[in-house]
Amino acid sequence: MKRFIEFDVLRGVLLLMMVVDHSPSSLRLLTDQPFGFFTTAECFVFVSAFLAGMIFSKRVEKLGFAAARSSSISRAGRIYRAHLFTVGFAFVLGGLFLTELSGIRNLLDHYLINPWAAIGGSLVLLFRPPLMDILPMYILFSLLTPATFWAARRWGWRTVLLVSLSTWFIAQAHVRDILLDTFKDLPFIQLGPFDLLAWQLLWVGGLFVGQRFQENKALLPRSRLLRLVLLVLAITFLVWRWCSIAFGPDPVTRMWLLDKWHLGLLRLINFFVAASVVATFLKNLTRWEVPLRPLFLIGRHMLPVFCSQICLSIVLIGRTDSGSLTAEPLTSALVLCQLFAAPLFAWFLEWRSAAKGLARSRPQAPVLTTTSRLQRRDRKKIPLLLAASDNRSYNLSK
Fold it and tell me: When comparing pLDDT for 319 and 238, which is higher?
């Protein structure tokens, strides 16, 4: 299945924005919700679900449902290994260099209190420290993908979307927070701020849109009036967001309607309106394939680059929050160096992948067995034997 350059470029941009959002630098002003009341997290989840839905439906069409399900589970396994790598890096870093990286206490406070409980909780995805709570969500959603498509085949996408929307409504009552208060004394549980009962709506919606895209079916009627309305709404949210930055947030921005962790209603509307507008211009990115190649490579090798950047962010936060590197512009300079490391690492991964592909495609010299060597030696003797027999015949005739 061919890769869509525009989606890899988009994921590369989102990753670099996420790196800045995770940093304690003043550059966050440019990347923290710059296009409205939504962050890179919503974009990541939806784009990943879109690609997962497109790929899953394509594999079902070519190889069958069982093969598509196996691929999705295998993908979840790769993300799980990446999750273990990142939390393992953080635990080792916090345990060995805590005095030098005192700022890491804010990230690993529960781990430092009870390390073995935190390790056990991480293995079963119940312990998710800050910055390391995205991958467990992806693992669970990747396992949810086959079940979603199975339910859609049996009962239809309308029923699946209705169930997902109903679950999102339940999440608005903060049911998850009530359950967590019940188990707050258990040291191996730290689920992080993301309410998966709410965020599953973005994932299921992305699967549906990806499946429709793969089948070349329009999601919305192609009307100029509708596109104009969506553009006006997107600009309205954009102006509102920057006014809240310039003049201070108004009371509405602090209400549940724009809540991030439970995906408030206005936040959802803002995201889908902006996504529909961006989608109309996304195909134009293919014209800039060469200058955008660093971003494309980041998106192509998303998982390992993401893990490396999370590890670098943990080191940076642990160092800057310790008090010795909090001054600007030094913090921003360190973040810029981290951003520069992302395309370099992606280029290295691309070079290694190309080298492995070349090694697999290179023809190997045939290995000669003892029998084949004897056969070759015998074939060499045949002309000599024929020549000798000719000489003998000639002598006899004389």
Answer: 238
